Structure formats: structure tokens, C-alpha cells
Amino acid sequence: MENHILDGKLCIYCIKVLKEYKLIDLYSFFVLEFYNGYKEMEECIMLKTLAAHIKEFKKDSILTPVFMILEVILETIIPLMMASIIDDGVEAGNMQHIYVMGSLMVITAFVSLWAGVMGGKYGSRASTGFARNLRKAMYENIQTFSFSNIDKFSTSGLVTRLTTDVTNVQNAYQMILRMCMRAPASLICAMAMSFYVNAKVAFVYLAAVFILGIILFILIKFTMKYFQQVFKKYDALNESVQENVSAIRVVKAYSREEFEKSKFMTASGNIYNMFVKAEKMIALNSPVMQLAVYSCILLISWLGAKMIVGGSMTTGELSQLLTYCMNILMSLMMLSMIFVMITMSMASAERIAEVLEEKADITNPAEPVMHVPDGSIRFEHVSFSYKSDAETPVLKDINLDIKQGEMIGVIGGTGSAKSSLVNLISRLYDVSEGSVSVGGINVKDYNIETLRNEVSVVLQKNVLFSGTILENLRWGDADATDEECIHACQLACADEFIDKMPDGYNTYIEQGGTNVSGGQKQRLCIARALIKKPKVLILDDSTSAVDTATDSKIRKAFAEEIPDTTKIIIAQRISSIKDCDRIIVMEDGAVDGFGTHEELLASNEIYSDVYESQMSGSGDFDE
Fold first, then answer.
1. DSSP-derived secondary structure letter, 359
2. C-alpha span between 209 and 213 (Å, rounded)
């Protein structure tokens, strides 16, 4: 199937070329048919992807339309009973017939009500269960994504897909199970009974249905394009909210509340404007329907009155036809609502399917290596780009050989690809060319979880989760004892502030670590990484917020307590890495120098210039 899609995309490209050279008219019919077929195939694949998650709710999905059709059949019988009461009971003066038919009507109405309730019950269970399965499947698939997969979807976009988009699909699915069965069934049954009662009058319905169908088609066609655009606007709104809330302290520090309000109002206004345009079109639906309903009632009443006077129709039959008139036109109104909801949900369904069908770029090999022998690291002719079609690689022909237990410093200007270099070691990204080895084995040959458990990374952006300090520390090792957590905090110099807290290690950390300082957050993240007892420890500028004395204590603890762990420290301050065994100098995605502090001072111009400027207090690496 994937090959067919690729072939289809290639043919679409060829069609565009033909159009560019004005040859498209020769094949216009073929092109149109092929393109429509290709789009239908894509939609079928998307629907198949979503339908696979109905799973255990198939029974509910089948029972719902069964009960809805039963409700429609019973509702169709009721006007027939009413006509019988009028003609054979009231006009004939037969009270016995009125009592019998009245009782049957009450029983039929209650059974119809029960069928409607059961349809609602099973429909709600099926739709909410379907939504639950979609969210679960999306969330689980997101957990398998590599960093490159995550880069394809913004965080706000994923949140929208997990919430708003799934809710839209849930509502549409419930409407399909209930209304999509009820409305056509009611329309067909009412139309059939109308022709059974009086074919001449029934043609009034048929004409109304035809006219309303054309109007609905036009309204839906114009409305669809707005709903397809509106959910992209939701992404922008969620992004604005998420960014503002997570960085509220910065917003207040810079007095940017009005700017953020303006940005939010712009994003919210875009959604408002888009919905207003769509709702203006949909709003025409109601008056058109009402005009049709009342026109049909007047026309049927006029025709019916003439027929009653002429003796070709009874009063009960006229009452019956008027009831069926309302049923038919209400069914049309329900169908219009269904089309609008499905139109809205199709855009959401496509966005959900994109996440479900996204395959992780980084996966385990067929027979993964389950043990990392040691912490030695080797880069062999490594080049790397975040995008496959990038003209210039981020890393260019990197060759490094790092021994187990070494403490390696990495320094370089902003954008010199320091973080990109270390992200390849734990296989957060895959190399574009060359190979990266840990313990003498290519990282692509390892089980991903095994590798990442032995290569502990403290990322540049420190993240703590809501929970106690101990709960956060045990992200490194769920089975770590209190003593192991305390020891890791001592190595990271985090015990200095934890002991001063009223609840100590049971102190509750707010979401994102908002109730601790930047330096405290960094030290907790380092302690969390140490609890894993890794063979390789990577600190990506993770001591930038701590003072020089604490930085020195942490590095000393590393040297004394974990001598066999390979330690890679990215820093902007030379003072943070000058005591490392060797130092890597990065410049524009390449290794400009690799050696000890003394060797680089003597042989590397960039390093020596930065050292002089920092020691004199007049600059940093970027300068």
C-alpha cells in the first residue's frame, strides 16, 4: 500500500509538470479521475487506520444503529395509529377502538423511547471508548518518537490532536452511529408511508427533498474549506497559551502582559473569524429548512382539504401525512447537521491519522545488543543533518576517540553543534553518515532502552516533574533506595539546599520545578542522572546556573566517586572544563581542536583567545 501511495505522489508530480507545459488539456479527464481516485485511496487508508481502534466497542457500534432503526420504525407506526383513531374511532364514534388504539400507541411510544435510550447508551459507550483508544494509541506512539519525529509536530499541535481533534472525531462517530442511521431510515420510512397513503401528495415531499438536497450540498461545499483551516488556528492558540503559562515569570519580569494578551487575542480572533464565516453559511440552513417545512405544510393542507371535500382522502390520512412531512424535513435537517459534523471531523481525523501513522525514525535492530561493555566512545567520519534535504550538515566529518573513565570537556560558540554532537551518543538522533560507537559497538546495534540507561544525559533544558524530590530522583532508577538518592544528591551538591527545606527529600516540586531556582533544578537533574549509575554521563551545559565553587565541587566529586564513568561536560566557561582530561573545541559543526588544556593553549588559536578574554573578564566564547 505504501508503494502505491509513493507511485501516486510521483504521478501527481508528473501531472503538475504536464500542466506547467500546457499539455494537461490532452489528459484532463484522466487526470481528474486519477487524482480523485488517489484522494479516495488516501481517505480509505486514513479511515482504516482510525477504525482499527474501535476494538472492543464493535458490539456497541453495531447495537446502536439497530436500536435507532427500531426507534424509527416504531415512530413511523404511531401516525398510522393516530389516523386510525381519527377515522375509525372519533369520526365513527367507536370508543372501544379509541381505547385499544390509544393503548397500543402508548405502548409503542414507550418501546420507541426505550429503543432511543438504548441507542444513546450504546452510542455514547462506543464513541467515548473509540476516543479513549485513539488518545491511548496516539500517546503510546508519541512515546516511541525520536527527537526527529517530535520535530515534525509542534508540542501545541500534538496537544490539539490529543484533545480537540479527538473530541471532534468522537462527536462525529456518535452522530454517525445514531443520526446517520436514524435520519436516512426516518426519511425512507416516512416517504414510503406517504406514497402508501397518497402518492399525489407525496410528490410534494419528493420535490422538497430534491430542492433542499441541492441547497445543503452547496452550503456544505462552501463550509468545508473553513473547517479544514480552523484546526491549524487551534495549534497557534494552544502554542500561545502554553508558551505564556510556562514562561509566566519571564512575561511578568519584562512587563509583557499586554503583548501576550495581544498575541493571544490575535490567535483567538483568527479562530473566531474562521468559525463566524463557517457559521454564517450554516445559519442559512435553519431558515431554508423552516421555509420548506411551512411551505410543505401549507401546500399539503390545501391539497388535503380539497381531497377531503372531494372524498378522496380522510381527515386521519391528512393528519398522518402532516406528521410524515415533519419527519421527512426533520430528517433532512439532521442530515445537514451530520454532513457539517463529518466535514469538521474529517480535518481532525486526518491530523489524528498523521500521528498514528508516523513511524519512529529510530527503532531497535532485529537482534539488539542488551549489554554495554564500557563507556568508551568513538566517532568515525560522522556527519549529521536534522533534515535529509539540508544543503549543509550540522556536523561535518567528526572523528573522536574517547576512553572509558575520561572526563571530556566540550566548548564552542552558540550554534557550533555541541548539543548535536552529544545527542548522537545516546541515539536521540541517528547519524547521517559514519558511525558512533559506545563500548566498541555501534549505537544502532543496541537495544535503545539499554543504551540510554547506560548513557545518562542531563539535557540543556532542565525539566522536573510534579511530585516530591525523591519521586523526581527515582526517574533515574525506580528502585533506588533513600540512601542512594541522598548519595547522588551529595555528589551533585544538591543536599546543601535540600537539607534546609522543611520537608527535606519529601518536599513537593511544582510542575516544571517552578518552586526551585535554576541552579537547584540543575543539581537535582544531575543527581537524577547519577542514580542511573551510567557508564557515560553527559552534562549539556548543566552547571551554567550554579556558582563557580559549587561547579568545582561537582567536578571533584565526579573525579573521585565515579572514576570509571566517562564524563562529557559541555560548558561556556573554560574554568568549568580546564581540569578535564581532554577538551573538544567545536567551531561551525567541526572539531577545531582536541587535547588537554595546556595543549590547546599552545596550539589552538580559538581556545587560547577565549581563555585570555575570559581570564581578563572581558568576554565569553561567542565573543
1. P
2. 6
